[in-house]
From TrEMBL, chain A:
Annotated InterPro entries: BFD-like_2Fe2S-bd_dom, BFD-like_2Fe2S-bd_dom_sf, FAD/NAD-bd_sf, FAD/NAD-binding_dom, Metab_Enz_Cyan_OpOx_G3PDH, Opine_Oxase_asu/HCN_bsu
Domain BFD-like [2Fe-2S]-binding: start-end pairs: 372-423
Keyword Nucleus: no
The protein's name: FAD-dependent oxidoreductase
Keywords, alphabetical: Oxidoreductase
Gene Ontology terms for molecular function: oxidoreductase activity
Stored Pfam families: Fer2_BFD, Pyr_redox_2
CDD domains (UniProt xref): GlpA-like_Fer2_BFD-like (cd19946)
Residue span(s) of domain FAD/NAD(P)-binding: 5-313
From TrEMBL, chain B:
Organism name: Neoroseomonas eburnea
Keywords: Oxidoreductase
InterPro entries documented for this protein: 2Fe-2S-bd_N, 2Fe-2S_ferredoxin-like_sf
Pfam (any one): Fer2_4
Designated name of the protein: (2Fe-2S)-binding protein
Gene Ontology MF: a single term: oxidoreductase activity
Length: 459, 100
């Protein structure tokens, strides 16, 4: 078993930054990622797609620079196409799946930099073919250069909606309509959060995007409520409060939430973030979790965007080097200063964004009883409410009444919605309803893959 | 329906989606190939028989589970295409964990 000093799961900005910092401090670093190339979600496929004019911007410049530095780094072993499916929390042995075969790795310390996922947006009809996440369509653009054909509707809110609208329009998709769900009262609340001056660089970037979107002909409808996807066999129309428009592809987006599947399965401490309306692992200022040997960096620890992910990755690597005795705490703290400043700058605008783009209650807990909540097992909001009335006190108990969280996605898509529905029905907080505790394997495994592992162990 | 942009990403890899030959760019996922092939569905649900296509493209929703080169229950969005890859709709139950 190769014993690295630091194993990092995720080669997005957080994992890459941590690897660069760790290797510079002399740590032997292992980085594994289930994607076939470095970059994470934000800089996915950048080595192949940086030349695509539709993706011009941070992606092609800063993303490319980060990935180049990662490729050039010494002291970093990078295993692409490698999925983490189990961690032994006593020994920090990692069980991995690579090219259909199970393998293992060991390290003294573990950093989880597994990023974010799009917040599920359970509206009536969201399971129809032709409906997908806005980020999913962006992945198609980054990895395959493809865009939807025919009228595109982006429905939801947040900075990514504007970025993706612009990228789609640059790539020749269209017409593109943005149905923005931001509520009228949100702007006032957001302005009270402040941070506009400290966060002005990001704010100006955002405003430039909005201008470009308008100039490229994005149609924007504001304060949209009551969204529905309609169609026979695939989406054909989008409806909201009294309006219906034709639609070839409907892209839903209500922001991103930390991917906590692995940290929850490990039983690490989590807390409900009332500002970002999501679960996040409980971390200290270095990303340390409730487990001695495991830290978290990047959006997986709370949504901050890629620049914050870089800073938290660097901080976590400094702490790892310190705990491994390579640097003392004074040295760690000294080296942390610029990264803490970068983190503050990157997060300055967050409170404003969190308030402006807080999802409406109907996004968290769909009002209509017939809306599907669990895509895997086809369970509706009404069924979850009925289970709550019968005695299900949280998402873990709901499994016994329904099968929510027991399908192939293991609750990645329905977990927070089920908790929100139960909380509302029982008059408790989401925190009281509790967080779904998934189990390993984190990803599907074939019997063949496991058999290979058993043979290796016997040898 | 999706449109390729050969000027940005030439379609150089030939794969089979449900028996149909499709050319896609290098680096595309098997799920992308399914969408680019215009397949109406990758599976239908056991209860309602409703059609489904990939939703998240990043390994979260599992709506893309497919049979790839004869191996069922693979997340098509996490598999990069290779020349001659056979991608077929999932037959039988979808399985998340190891089962015999
Ligand atoms: C679909 C999507 C698109 C986005 N697009 C943008 C964008 O264009 N611009 C922007 O500013 N922000 C974007 N974001 C926000 C994003 O969260 C960024 O802030 C940034 O990617 C966060 O960096 P990170 O390093 O924390 O995580 P990520 O960049 O998400 O990197 C995490 C990495 O961990 C890997 N991973 C996860 N689980 C496992 C596992 N079990 N085994 C092995 N590897 C694993 C993933 O493959 C991924 O490469 C997007 C988010 C999503 C979900
Ligand atoms: S499309 Fe969601 S897991 Fe593959």
């Amino acid at each position: 078993m190769s014993g690295h000093d630091l194993a990092i799961v995720g080669a997005g900005p957080a994992g890459i930054a941590a690897a660069l910092e760790g290797a510079a401090l002399g740590l032997s670093v292992l980085v594994l990622d289930e994607q076939d190339a470095p970059g994470g979600q934000v800089f996915r496929a950048v080595e192949r797609a940086a030349g695509d004019p539709a993706l011009a911007g941070d992606y092609a410049t800063e993303g490319m620079a980060l990935v180049r530095a990662f490729r050039a780094a010494r002291g970093v072993e990078y295993r692409p196409g490698t999925t983490l499916w189990h961690i032994d929390t006593d020994t920090l042995r990692l069980s991995l799946l690579r090219e259909g075969k199970a393998e293992e790795a060991g390290a003294s310390r573990l950093l989880l930099a597994t990023g974010a996922q799009e917040r599920p947006v359970p509206i009536p009809g969201w399971t129809l073919p032709g409906v997908m996440g806005a980020g999913a369509a962006q992945i198609l653009l980054k990895t395959a250069g493809a865009v939807p054909a025919g009228p595109v509707v982006i429905a939801g809110q947040g900075p990514l909606c504007w970025l993706i609208a612009v990228q789609m329009l640059r790539a020749g998709a269209g017409p593109v309509t943005l149905l923005e769900t931001t509520r009228g009262s949100a702007a006032t609340a957001a302005l009270q959060a402040g941070g506009l001056w400290a966060g002005r660089r990001l704010l100006l970037k955002g405003l430039a995007l909005v201008r470009e979107a308008r100039a490229r002909g994005l149609r924007v409808v504001r304060k949209v409520r009551g969204l529905q996807a309609l169609g026979e066999g695939r989406v054909e129309h989008v409806r909201w409060e009294g309006n219906t428009i034709p639609c070839g592809t409907l892209l839903l987006h209500e922001g991103v939430i930390p991917s906590t599947h692995v940290t929850r399965a490990l039983g690490l401490e989590h807390r409900w973030d009332a500002a970002q309306l999501c679960w996040r692992p409980t971390l200290d200022g270095w990303g340390a979790t409730s487990h001695d040997g495991i830290a978290v960096a990047g959006d997986g620890g709370g949504i901050g965007g890629w620049e914050a992910a870089v800073a938290t990755g660097r901080l976590a690597a400094l702490d790892a080097a310190c705990r491994l005795g390579r640097i003392d705490t004074a040295e760690r703290d000294r080296r942390a200063v610029p990264h803490r400043a970068a983190l503050r700058r990157a997060l300055a605008l967050r409170p404003f964004l969190d308030r402006l783009y807080a999802p409406a209650p109907e996004v968290l807990a769909p009002a209509d009883d017939s809306t599907l909540v669990c895509r895997c097992e086809e369970i509706t909001a009404g069924q979850v409410r009925a289970a709550a009335r019968l005695g299900a006190t949280g998402p873990n108990q709901a499994k016994a009444y329904l099968r929510t969280g027991m399908g192939p996605c293991q609750g990645r898509m329905c977990g927070t919605t089920v908790a929100a529905l139960i909380a509302a029905e029982r008059g408790i907080t989401v925190e009281q309803a509790g967080v779904l505790r998934p189990r390993a394997p984190f990803k599907p495994l074939t019997v063949g893959a496991l058999a290979g592992l058993a043979k290796d162990d016997a040898a | 329906m999706y449109a390729q942009r050969p000027e940005a990403r030439p379609a150089t890899v030939e794969v089979l989606v449900d028996g149909q030959v499709v050319r896609v760019p290098e680096g595309a996922s098997a799920a992308a190939a399914v969408l680019l092939a215009g397949l109406p569905a990758l599976r239908s649900t056991p209860v309602g028989g409703a059609p489904r296509l990939p939703y998240c493209m990043m390994g979260v929703c599992f709506d893309c589970l497919a049979e790839i080169d004869g191996v069922p229950n693979r997340q098509a969005c996490m598999v990069t295409v290779a020349p001659g890859m056979r991608i077929a709709p999932q037959r039988g139950a979808r399985v998340a964990g190891p089962r015999a």
